[in-house]
Structure formats: C-alpha cells, structure tokens
Write a structure and sequence with these properties.
Elements lengths: L6 H27 L6 H12 L47 H4 L43 E3 L7 H5 L7 E3 L2 E3 L11 H9 L11 E5 L5 H6 L5 E6 L7 H7 L4 E3 L14 E7 L11 H9 E10 L5 H4 L7 H17 L2 E7 L2 E6 L60 H4 L8 H21 L10 E4 L6 H6 L5 E7 L6 H6 L3 E5 L12 E7 L1 H4 L6 H11 E11 L1 H11 L4 E7 L9 E7 L15
Parallel strand pairs: 4-5, 4-7, 5-6, 7-8, 11-12, 11-14, 12-13, 14-15
Antiparallel strand pairs: 1-3, 2-3, 8-10, 9-10, 15-17, 16-17
C-alpha cells in the first residue's frame, strides 16, 4: 500500500521530537541534581531553615564545625521569653521528689518517697542556678574517687557514715574511698567475694541493679569489671546520696522500691543486689521480692548482704531477738524458693541466690501468677503481689526469653526480643540498618565536636533512645548513656537491656528523677516531634536545662518545624546555639541543632542574656 503524501515527513518529525524530549529531560535532571529546581516543597523547607537564623546563634562554640552552616543569622526572630534565674534555694530542686510535697503523702510502703510531680500551675519556669564556686567535675576515672565540694556542698554523710568510709571531706574536695555499710574494707574486696560465685569477669554479667545504693560505690567499682549498674536510692535524710553518685560519673536515679513498679522492663538485669538497703524482704507480703524477680533475667543472681543474715553476730546490735531474725531469714528463703530461686552461697553477711533459667527447672511451681499480659507496661502502675511467669520454652535446657551473648558481643548481636518478633515494627534486618545509621550519625557528631565520646562528656542521656543505637555507637569505658524510652513511644527498652545497655521509662511532660546538673551531654532525637501535641516545649526545655551541667551540650536531631519552636525558646535560656545540615546535605529535611549551656552560678545575673 502506497503511503499517503507527507507520511515520511511526519515520521522524521516524530523522531526529532522524541530526541528533543530526551535531551530536555537530561538537562532538567542535571539541573535538579545540581541543587536547583527541587520544587515548591523543598523550597519551602529551605525557607523554613532560613527562618531559624538569627544573630544570636554562635558560630564559635567550643568545637570546630565540619558541616556546612545553614543560613545567614538575622535578628528579626522574636525571642519568646528571657528566662530569669530561680532563687538560689532551688539549686538542688527535684520537681517530682520535693520534700514539702512528699510529706503530704502516706508513709506506708514508702509512698511519700515515690514520684509526686507538681501540677502545671506550680511548675517552676526559671533557670536552676549552680551553686557559687561550681566547677566542671573531675574527669573519669578520677571522678570515681573525688568530687568538688562546691558542686555538692553537703557534709552530713561524712559524719553519719564516717566509720563506714562512704565519703570523706578533704579541703575543697570530697573523697570516696569505696566503702559501704556492708563493705567497710572496700567495694573491691566485697565484689571479689561475689565473683567467687557469680561470673562477673567474663561478660556474662553486664547489667545490674542496686536497690538502695547509698553513694553508689558498688556500682562505681563494678564499672572496673565492665558491668553497668543502675543504682537508685530515695531522696531522704541521707543527704544527696544519688547526687554524689552522679557527680562521681556513676549511673544513678532517685527512686524507691515502694508501691509503684520499678520503671524498668522485665528480664532487664543479670544481677540485683541489696547491701543493707532496708527493704523489708521478709516482713512485707512478698511484693518487693516479686518485683525484683520481674526485672531479674532467668539465670540471674540476687545478692542480699545485711540483715537478717549473720544475725548470730549482730542481733543485739540490731536490737532484735534471735527468733525474730531466724523467722525473717526463713521467710525470705521460702519466698525465694517459690520464685524459683536457688540459694548458692551463704557466708557471714552475704547470701547469694540464682534464678532458674526457666519454669521447667523449678522445684516448686508458683501459684499466684500475674494476670497482666505485658510485664513491661509499668509506668505508674501499682506493684502487684503476684509472680511474673517465665516466657515459654521448648526444652528444659532453653533459657526463657532467649540466651544472651556475653558482653561485648551482646552489644551488636540481635536482641532475643527482636529475633522473636516481640518489638513492634522491628526486624533483624531493620535492627542492623538502625545500627549502621547511628554509627553514621555519631561519626557526624564527632566531626562537629571532637570531644563527643571522650571523658569530657561522661554522663550522657538519650531522651528518645529507640533501639539504643546512639548509645551502642558511642559506647566506651569513658562514657555511659542513660537510654530513656518515653512512655508514649514504642516499647523498646527490653531490647536495649538485651544489648547490655541501661535505661529507664519516663514521660517528658514531667521532671526526670535526678538532681540538677547531672548530665554532660543530652541527645534528643525527634523528641519534640513526638511531644508536639502532648505538652509544652517550654517545660521540656527547662527540664533539660535543669539536669544539664554548665558548659554541657545538647544535640537536637529533628524536623525543621519543631526546631524553629525549640530555638525560639532556647534563645532565652543562656544557651549558645548552632544549626547545621544533616550529614547527607542541605536538602534532607532533618536538621541538627547544637546547644551549649553557658557557665553561670547563683547571684551572677538576675535575668538571662539573649545568648550574645
């Protein structure tokens, strides 16, 4: 069939048009790759980043930046508020453990020593001052043994516990000889005795809990064995004991074993200990021991040193009858057997029990199992007088909940909770991807600030810890990280503990259970996006300022909109600020905001500067 007139011309024209479109698309793609023509959405984000800029944000922080600085900083941005210093009487303010509020609550089961936070209208909205003479704490490991008296100016324990060598006052420093009520010869000798029964040295024991820790010398000396101890004690007449611990660079929180569940997941700790902690293990209804059992791993150890053990020697000193002491000891051991614990050691003041690895190996089966479906759902939940059941096993040799690698292999091994699909939305593959991501992020932080990972920032907090990737990437004997899992986030804290890390549940709409000036570095990853509609950013930022040490650092990683709000508030808080791009470049919506808290002490200024 003969083609119609002009068909060949139209065919040639079509080829020409197609080639032209291909060339145009290539040029357009090249133009976009060069950083232009990204579209309205990116243009809007870049505009928002520019809004973050102002002349008050420092370009000369304590560290040398390696990332591109975003924007030209101008002074047109409104400072929301310039925050004044609180009265000096609040220098050691702990909002949820204040004595005046505590005394309004019952003393039964230590309820008055638990968390009781102020209502919104009573919250302080000022900056907690450091005491006059405050000095950056000694670097680790010297801080284990010494603290500046000006930082924690309390001598009560130097007198009350003088014969037990908790703490001594020498000139302008406090000295911590490593003593304790039950180890006057020193924590090292005490731990050596425990290690004759418990495999402390080989990485089997990595996480521990010290109930009623004093100044946390046990936890401080366990660090030499590469064991991380979560130490806690109430804010009571033993003045500033947890504050001393944190000043020494030892993990600790204000807390008590009372009527509310401990803020830790089930099967969290390889080891628990009570060294004359005054918890009524044998005289209460068994609830306290059942709560320790909940947080103790299958195969874990519990150490009790002090009353009622060695009652033959001390019952007169305790002003108790032999019959009373024997009855208490018998009650403790009966309850331990009901919990499927076996006594492994008793000598002098010390008794050591080991929890069986699964229910199959129990001599006596507990009768009153807890009905709750989730033993990790504990935030502000009442402790129950019931036994947390072991996870099911397929054989008598299997460790309930999954066997853990020895540390440090445990740090990057897949946690059993993830391997078994028990962490919502997390697979083994996504877990490894998360580890790689955080190694990259931490490398970027170290490029921004070469001191990250050094002993300069000993006490570190991750406010929204996720799977613990940040803590794992920064792990070093020079630092420790408090991994906080918000109560509104996916519950990942159990997996964090299975990595050999420590942490705690918390609600950032409330004050944290610690003293002022206890953290050197705070990391906030997408925390403010999470709390956008939950509570005021101002309250969270003021709490961060309270617990951050002078000249400490905050690293925010978040979307642009929350960072705009954060920076507006932070400009009035005596923080120096710097904004940088994501490590992958300026067109990634996630940005990094660095803050350095200025050094100032009580009485220096009545109101904040604008960070000039």
């Amino acid at each position: 069939m003969t083609p119609k007139h002009g068909g060949r011309s139209r065919g040639s024209m079509s080829i020409f048009i197609v080639l032209g479109l291909c060339c145009f698309c290539y040029l357009l793609g090249s133009w976009q790759k060069s950083g232009f023509g990204k579209g309205d959405s990116i243009a809007m984000r870049v505009s928002k980043v520019a809004e973050l800029a102002d002349c008050d944000v420092k370009t000369d922080l304590d560290f040398e930046p390696h990332h591109k600085f975003v924007g030209t900083f101008e002074s047109r941005e409104v400072i929301v508020k310039k925050y004044k210093a609180c009265d000096v009487k609040y220098k050691d303010y702990t909002p949820c453990q204040e004595q005046d509020r505590a005394m309004k609550f019952p003393r039964e089961n230590m309820i008055y020593r638990e968390r009781h936070c102020p209502p919104q209208e009573e919250k302080l909205r000022c900056l907690i001052p450091a005491p006059v003479g405050y000095t950056t704490p000694f670097p680790w490991p010297k801080s284990r043994d010494y603290a500046y008296y000006a930082n924690v100016p309390y001598k009560h324990l130097t007198v009350e516990k003088a014969g037990q060598h908790w703490v001594e006052y020498e000139g302008n420093v406090l000295k911590f000889p490593g003593g304790g009520t039950m180890f006057p010869q020193g924590a090292d000798a005490y731990i050596d005795e425990l290690a004759s029964v418990i495999p402390i040295k080989d990485g089997t024991i990595r996480t521990a809990i010290d109930t009623g820790c004093g100044v946390a010398s046990w936890g401080a000396y366990m660090l030499k064995r590469n064991v991380l101890a979560m130490s806690f004690a109430p804010r009571d007449n033993h003045e500033a004991q947890v504050q001393f611990a944190l000043e020494r660079g030892v993990p600790a929180v204000i807390g008590v074993l009372g009527s509310i569940s401990l803020p830790y997941p089930s099967r969290a700790f390889d080891m628990a200990q009570c060294s004359r902690c005054l918890i009524p293990w044998g005289t209460d209804d068994g609830t306290s021991l059942m709560e320790v059992d909940r947080v103790l791993r299958p195969g874990g150890y519990w150490v009790l040193s002090g009353p009622p053990y060695n009652w033959k020697t001390y019952h007169k000193v305790w002003k108790r009858t032999p019959e009373d002491c024997k009855a208490e000891q018998r009650k403790i051991e009966e309850r331990a057997e009901q919990l499927c614990w076996e006594k492994k050691y008793e000598k002098g003041d010390i008794a050591i029990f080991r929890k069986k690895i699964n229910a199959e190996s129990c001599k006596r089966k507990p009768q009153n199992f807890c009905e709750t479906q989730d033993p990790d759902d504990v935030w502000y939940k009442k402790m129950e007088t019931c036994v947390t059941p072991f996870p099911e096993v397929s054989s008598s040799s299997e460790v309930a909940g999954g066997k853990l690698e020895k540390f440090p292999a445990r740090l990057f091994a897949t946690p059993p909770r993830i391997a078994k699909g028990l962490v919502t939305g997390v697979t083994e593959e996504s877990y490894q991807e998360d580890n790689a991501k955080w190694k990259k992020h931490v490398k970027a932080y170290k490029n921004l600030n070469r001191l990250v990972g050094s002993a300069r920032y000993r006490n570190i907090m991750d406010m929204n810890a996720g799977l613990g990737g940040f803590a794992a990437a920064i792990d070093s004997p020079k630092v420790w990280v408090m991994n906080v899992v918000p109560n509104i986030a996916d519950n990942t804290l159990g997996a964090i503990y299975e990595r050999g890390l420590i942490g705690i549940y918390h609600d950032w709409c409330e004050g944290f259970s610690t003293y002022p000036r206890t953290y050197d570095l705070i990391h906030a990853n997408h925390l403010f996006s999470m709390y956008q509609d939950k509570c005021e950013y101002e309250d969270i930022l003021l709490e961060m300022d309270r617990i951050l040490r002078p000249e400490g650092v905050v690293i925010f990683r978040d979307a642009v909109d929350p960072l705009i709000k954060v920076k507006q508030i932070a400009r009035g808080m005596r923080w120096d600020l710097k904004l940088v791009d994501h490590e992958d470049g300026p067109f990634v919506p996630e940005k990094i905001l660095i803050a350095v808290k200025q050094y100032w002490v009580a009485g220096e200024m009545n109101s904040t500067s604008s960070n000039r």
